[in-house]
Amino acid sequence: MLHLALADDGDGAVVADRVADLLRSGFGIGVDTGRARLVEDPPARRRPPAAGRTVRVPAAAPAVRPAGPASAAGAPEPSRLVIERLKFRAAGLEVHCAVTLRHGAGEATGEAVGSATSNGTVRALAGATLRAVEALCAVPVRLEIEYVDLTSTGLDSTVLVAVSMLSSSGSTRLTGAAAVRQDVRQAAVRATLDAVNRRLGPLLRPEGGRAG
């Protein structure tokens, strides 16, 4: 468990995201920031900061940002694919899934069909996520689901995803995981993005572009 001390005016969510980026890009360690908790120390335990010293969390290198001109100083820059919408519809023995992702001003929707079972729905959502990712890439990329599983550890459940990625530079196998918070469907999409996010930087369209 990682403990962080915040200043009185610190934003816990922003700090958690930056630390997660740093651990992921620098050490390959995945952190689920959705499980971060803010705990107030009793007043008696708080210590005033030492004079002349400021502790800052360094901004990590963006995990999925393509090369481009720097933005205005101090302006936050979106660097990740964001889940915009998630839809699914059961029809007989099948489930139809649609996942919309956003990257800056551009967004794309991917669709997939699977069997109307728990594992089939998770696999279809992962596949729809990959179709949306492909549409947001500026160069031809083929992404395929190799493995999807929902595992349980004690009281917690985790979605595991393995993805094969084929591009002009070759093929590679990527893996991702996401803890199930309340909805296993959201976890399936987040696990898929966790698998591909670290490799998408030079492949994505500029954030101001829009997928066709």
Descriptive report:
The protein has 212 residues and is α+β, with helices and mostly antiparallel strands. The protein has 2 domains: 1-38 and 55-61, no CATH class; 82-203, 2-Layer Sandwich (Double Stranded RNA Binding Domain), CATH 3.30.160.270. 23% of the residues lie in helices and 30% in strands. It has 3 helices and 6 strands; from the N terminus they run αβββαβββα. The chain has helices at 12-27, 118-136, 184-196; strands spanning 82-91, 94-103, 106-115, 142-153, 156-167, 170-179. The strands form 2 sheets. The protein has a 3-stranded antiparallel sheet with strand order 1-2-3. Strands 4-5-6 form a 3-stranded antiparallel sheet. A hairpin with a 2-residue loop joins strand 1 and strand 2. The longest helix is centred in the middle third of the chain and has 19 residues, at 118-136.
Provide key terms for this protein:
globular; Double Stranded RNA Binding Domain; alpha+beta; three-stranded antiparallel beta sheet; 23% helix; single chain; 30% strand; 2 domains; 212 residues
Give a brief description.
The chain is of the alpha+beta class and about 210 residues long. Helix content is about 25%, strand content about 30%.
Shape designation: globular
Cα radius of gyration in angstroms: 19 Å
The CATH topology of the largest domain? Double Stranded RNA Binding Domain
Q: Major beta sheet, specifics?
A: 3 strands, antiparallel
Helix content: 10-25%
- Class per helix and strand makeup: alpha+beta
CATH fourth-tier homologous superfamily of the largest domain: Alpha-isopropylmalate synthase LeuA, regulatory domain
Residue runs with pLDDT of under 50 for 5 or more positions: 49-78
Give the terminus-to-terminus CA distance: 43 Å
Measured by DSSP, the beta-strand proportion falls in 25-35%
Helix count, DSSP H or I runs of 4 or more residues: 3
Largest sheet: spatial strand order = 1-2-3
- The CATH architecture term of the largest domain is 2-Layer Sandwich
The CATH class of the largest domain is Alpha Beta
- Quaternary state, please? single chain
Number of strands: 6
Overall pLDDT score: 74
Reading the helices and strands in chain order gives: HEEEHEEEH
The domain count comes to: 2
